[in-house]
Known about the structure:
Elements: H1 2-23, E1 26-27, E2 42-44, H2 53-56, E3 61-66, H3 71-75, H4 77-86, E4 91-96, H5 102-107, E5 115-118, E6 122-123, E7 130-134, E8 140-144, H6 147-156
Parallel strand pairs: 1-6, 3-4, 4-5
Antiparallel strand pairs: 2-5, 3-7, 7-8
Amino acid sequence: MNKRIFYLVPLVVLVLLIGFNFLKIKEYKLEYNKEFPSDVEIYHFERKTEVPITYLFENQTLLFYLKQSCNVCIENLDTFSSFVRQNNDLNIILLWEDDIPIEELSRASIEMEMNYQVKGRIRLSKITPLFVLIDSENKVDFISNDIKQMEARLIIK
């Protein structure tokens, strides 16, 4: 009996450590004038394929970083949709940390083509919604959680 416990306890501890490590969220901090993290895997929602970051941001891009579990994000989808229609000359993508709310996007008339998802347990920011302007060199040019500030920044540019 003692021999079983002797072998069982380390095995249980090992399984728990592996499990906790698997559940751990890898966090990034997006900062002004720093490169967007190159090791983040981003998947296109409709095509279900990984999209290289260099392809995503080959032109200046406005990234809306959102979460389905964020009530403010979901409540403001109509505002985001209006912003997208008014700025159709910009490369705009919606990057979701978690599941993509298909019904809510349809109601807000947001094209599925614009929606991407991070792969795995990754968090780019603890704050959502987050608006990030990324230049063609993959550097964060502006970052804010206020869409009005982002609009003002785009007017200035």
